[in-house]
Amino acid sequence: MRLVIRNGRVICPSSGFDNVADVLIEDGVIAAVGQNLSISGAETLDATGLVVAPGFIDIHVHLREPGFEHAETIESGSRAAAAGGFTTICCMPNTMPVNDSATVTSYIIERARRHAIVNVFPIGAITKGSKGEELAAISSMAAAGAVAISDDGRPVMNSRVMRRAMETASEVEIPVIDHCEDLHLSGDGDMHEGLDSVRLGLSGIPSAAEDVMVARDILLAELTGARYHVAHISTRHAVSMVAFAKQRGLPVTAEATPHHIALHTGLMPAYDSNYKMKPPLRSDLDLDAVVNGLVNGAIDCIATDHAPHAGDDKMQEFEKCPFGIIGLETALGTALEVLVHTGKLSLTRLIALFTSEPARVIGWKGEQARGALRLGFVGDATLLDPQRAWVYDVNKSLSKSKNSPFHQHTFQGGPVATIVGGQVVWRRDGF
Amino acid sequence: MATGLLGIENFPRPDIEQLLERARNFQPKESGSYPRLTSCAGKMIVNLFFENSTRTRSSFEIAARRLGAEMLSITASGSSVTKGESLVDTLNTLVAMRPQAIVMRHGASGAPHFLARHLTTPIVNAGDGTHEHPTQALLDARTILDNKGALEGLRVAIIGDIAHSRVARSNIFLLSKFGVDIVLCGPPSLVPRELARIAPGVRLEHDIRKAILGADVIMMLRVQLERIHEPTMDASEYFQFYGLRLEHLSLAKPDVIVLHPGPINRGREISSEVADSQRSMILNQVENGIAVRMAVLERVLLQ
Predict the structure, then answer these.
(1) How far, in Å, are A44, A422, A427, B114 from residue A2 at the CA level?
(2) Could you tell me the fold of the domain covering B13-132+287-302?
(3) Alpha-carbon span A229 to A238, nearest angstrom
């Protein structure tokens, strides 16, 4: 099976390639990249006027399966991912049951093999049931295919447990991803603590709830030698601490979500649950720090924290609504708007934040190597148009959930086609 | 969209002035009698209370009755909410009965604002969580006006649990629109620093004696223990540092008045001597509550 993508502007940040060229994908891997490749008998995709990038990778999504299939399934989530240009997604373990064993890890991989239209890699839990007490079966999950561990949403409060988890993860060479939130400090908070929370009479989540955990984890990463990754970084102090850890040569990485670089509390319509997530939208100063972190390299990649919640769950009093918003389909549009169209980042660097950088954070190797259009890498590619205007209609989302603050927003640029293993799994209407 | 009254923050000063002026007509006469109207006859109001309340609920009921309107009062314990029905579904059911207005108290901040986005019936907020309680601010303003003649240039000290007080927020927003000098005072955990920026004219003070220095009005607030889920000051220490006692009143203006939204906790935030003193307007507040709620309901029903 062969697919040739013709005449697009091929940008591969990892190899530095940036030219109008053809890309040949054969038997699921990148087989050739060059100008005017002479190939016969291959399916052809005309990418004239488009950018051809390595397949986008999102290392932080919630697919809700098993257990919460009314909100999302591996299949629907993978379709939303494809519509966002993503060819590889890593799903968090806060399912029911929690992915804390090789059995659940294998179940997810098997369901994904049958039903997902993009590559799905499970992230295992750090502790059993993500209760923060006993370690989950980290080594078995890694052997079964989990690419990282995290107790996303229910962070490990016990520092000793976290230390042991990092030691184990280090041994099996997978990163530890932490949702950094001191649960005592965040308490029953519903939004960022500041003038707006006081004004609206909502309980606040102070920035310090994130900061103290990032500080703790960096110290533990140094103690244990683990690869440590900060999920959805949102505060200026956390960004500074990650930059500091990097300066010291520690294997510390971080991701930022599209919503934390596009929105701050001041932009939140009062009591609109489509703006309620954890960590919460922070202040404009924090937003600037996160954007700068992506620009100066303190933050390594963009990840969506795609968190579907069924409509009924979000149609409640603000304080009752669950945390989280969907984000796969709007990620590229948001990132282009905030980072590229403002001149803060080159298109090439932005593509790196979606491809080679998240691939480096996880560390896929050998047959699983991805995030670049290099020979032998998995045959995934994302076609994008960096300029074309389009309006996001959440009611047409391929996700089963519709909780997005970007409904009706006009974006400049977005994905056009998504290619997984040499197959076009999604294309924009009209392409 | 129908205009109810969700809060004071975005409610324009001229509208406030109009309501306060109108409320004068509804105050009891010298003789002790009070006006009864028929202007709102045939109108139906649903009075929906998801939280316990005696004074606000009955105040709205009396106000509706004096306007000639019908009022259906529903409390959460007797409603389908306890059977697991969502707030939106409950409200949709009530709206299907075609009331002209809904008066609503709810324990969640923003609950009426959330509903107002989905319903066409005007909603009067009778207190939402720790956010706003607009009719309380109006009745407090009416009470201050009855005693001081004007709001401009006054100094008002608000003392107690500001963080959890919807009364404080609505009062701050209202008084600020009239250029009042507002001093907030209470223990640090109940008076977040951000409050200093919540509206023009607000400053914070942690010493009650400094807070009430030269005050024209002292508003005392109850510590809302039911909303505080963390360690806080014990009652005797609170009273020692933030309780209003007779000896404090000499620091304020000679004609200072003391307000309290009730229910009062004697010996916790206010001493009995102060609560029962000539300076205390607590019972006048209750009376004015009916008058301003008549003005609010009339405005909503006859718009």
Answers:
(1) 9, 7, 18, 53
(2) Rossmann fold (3.40.50)
(3) 12
Q: How many helices (H) and strands (E) does chain B have?
A: 10, 9
Structure tokens that stand for B80 in this block: 């389908």
Residue range A45-85, pLDDT digits in tens: 999 999 999 999 999 999 999 999 999 999 999 999 999 99
Domain range list for chain B: 13-132+287-302, 134-285
The CATH number given to B134-285 is 3.40.50.1370
The beta-carbon neighbor of B194 closest among A194, A270, A312 is A194
Give B197 to chain A, closest Cα distance, Å.
Answer: 7
Residue A388 DSSP class: E
CA–CA min distance B42, chain A (Å): 32
CA nearest A197: which of A319, A322, A307?
Answer: A319
In sequence order, the 6+-apart residues with CB closer than 8 A to the CB of A90 are A57, A58, A59, A60, A61, A120, A121, A122, A123, A147, A148, A362
Q: Give the residue from B113, B170, B171, B221 with the most A CB atoms within 10 Å of its CB, the best one to mutate.
A: B113
DSSP states of A36-51? T----S-EEEE-TTSE
Residues from chain A that touch B131, judged by Cβ atoms under 8 A, are 200-202
**To the nearest whole angstrom, how far is the Cα of B66 from the nearest Cα of chain A?**
33
Retrieve residue A287's tokens. 């937003």
Residue B13 region by backbone torsions, left for phi larger than 0, else alpha for psi between -120 and 50, else beta: alpha
Owner of token pair 């969209």:
B1
Which CATH class for the A2-51+378-427 domain? mainly beta
With CA atoms as reference, the chain B residue closest to A195 would be: B194
Locate the chain A residue with the closest alpha carbon to B172.
A199
Instruction: State which residue of chain A sits closest to B199, comparing Cα positions.
Output: A199
A92-123 residue pLDDT tens: 999 999 999 999 999 999 999 999 999 999 99
Contact A137, A96 (CB under 8 A): no
Q: What would the two tokens of residue B149 be?
A: 């003649």
Kindly report the number of other CB atoms within 10 A of residue A15's CB atom: 16
Whether the complex's predicted ipTM surpasses the cut of 0.90: yes
Asked, colleague to colleague, whether B13-132+287-302 and B134-285 share their fold, the answer is yes
| Tens place of pLDDT per residue across chain A (431 aa) | 899 999 999 999 999 999 999 999 999 999 999 999 999 889 999 999 999 999 999 999 999 999 999 999 999 999 999 999 999 999 999 999 999 999 999 999 999 999 999 999 999 999 999 999 999 999 999 999 999 999 999 999 999 999 999 999 999 999 999 999 999 999 999 999 999 999 999 999 999 999 999 999 999 999 999 999 999 999 999 999 999 999 999 999 999 999 999 999 999 999 999 999 999 999 999 999 999 999 999 999 999 999 999 988 888 999 999 999 999 999 999 999 999 999 999 999 999 999 999 999 999 999 999 999 999 999 999 999 999 999 999 999 999 999 999 999 999 999 999 999 999 999 999 99
Given a cut of 80, is residue B230 above it in pLDDT? no
Choose the closest CB to B195 out of A198, A318, A319.
Answer: A198
Contact A200 B131 (CB under 8 A): yes
Q: Which residues pair with A25 in a beta bridge?
A: A3, A30
Task: Give the catalytic positions of A in this structure.
Answer: 305
- Topology at the third CATH level for domain A54-368: TIM Barrel (3.20.20)
Q: Which residues of B touch A (CB under 8 A)?
A: 9, 86-88, 106, 108-111, 113-114, 128-132, 163, 166, 169, 192, 194-195, 197-198, 229-230
Q: What is the C-alpha to C-alpha distance for residues B125 and B110, in angstroms, rounded to an integer?
A: 10
Is residue B105 within a helix (H) or strand (E), and if so which, with residue range? Answer: strand B101-106
C-beta atoms of A318 and B110 within 8 A: yes
